[in-house]
Amino acid sequence: MRAMETVVRGLDGSLDHVTLRQRASAALGDRVPADLAVWAVLDPATLMWSHCVLDGAARDVDLENAVFDNEYRVDDVLKVADVAAGGHAVTLHSATSGDPASSARYRDVFTPRGITDELRLPLHDGRTTWGLVVLLRSGGTFSPDEVGATSELARPLGTALRDSLVRTGRDLVGGNPSGTILTARDGRVLDLSDDARALLGSDGPDAVPAVVQAIAARRAAGGPASATTPTRDGRWLALHASALGKQLAVVVEEVRPHQVADLVVRGRGLTPREREVLAAVARGLSNRQVARELAMSEFTVLDHVKKLFAKFGVASRGELTASLFFDHYALQHTT
């Protein structure tokens, strides 16, 4: 039996995404101890930090802001994109070839807090990264055996997280108003509107989800400033940051139907070409028309369509279009 099979046993997409991560963290903590574990959902389109589950310590907003500032403004090792591209667990010590002091995150963020090593694990389904696990240890480093064992969780837990998030996406019902969050350029939340409080389920500036600080930090650094994040009660929120004088305004609203459809389609594991074929089929184009539009042979189109049938569990083009519309779009308007 592989070292981590007992960790993933019973953890699948039937659980809500918060419970899934809480149980996974408890099981992993028995085998790979950490002083703080952060289990984050990543926006699959942007790899931005989203909804986080913490294990081992209370939330530290200052630490969050420092980590996000490092992630989006500082040239450093072991960034989220690097970890996602690698597909397996990596520690700060190994990423710096045993010289962690060469990392700005280690020097400026971790050392003042007594943190001596960091392990990052991407949660992916083999194609798309859906989450990130960050383990922080005070005193000592993570061993090669711990890193190797943790890497075994990347795909099974990533697939389970994907299935949980996609299932959540199917059940969304939109209609809530948008809200606004005012932040400083360093990510500190200054104020938020009543609608933002209601959408986020937040009592005040100190209780907003970490994705708000992440978006603000990325916007201040000149990068993309949009993301989606799940809530505990099964909704998805879209957030976008823009400059407002010397401050930033983050608009939050429930995701629109086309955004949910895109999320669910990602969960099917479609390749970029399959997504193009699906869009053409949904528009009612024949195989010949799809071939002409996408500059491929009809045989290639037919092969893509067969793969789409398998991934959506349907047997005809009509069922494929109906599945996309009714399961992933029309339900967003249910009252």
From TrEMBL:
Q: What is this protein called?
A: GAF domain-containing protein
Q: Which organism is it from?
A: Pseudonocardia endophytica
Sorted alphabetically, the Gene Ontology BP terms of this entry are: regulation of DNA-templated transcription
List the InterPro entries: GAF, GAF-like_dom_sf, Sig_transdc_resp-reg_C-effctor, Tscrpt_reg_LuxR_C, WH-like_DNA-bd_sf
Keyword annotations of the record? DNA-binding, Transcription, Transcription regulation
PROSITE patterns recorded: HTH_LUXR_2
Q: Name one GO molecular function term.
A: DNA binding
**Residues annotated as domain HTH luxR-type:** 263-328
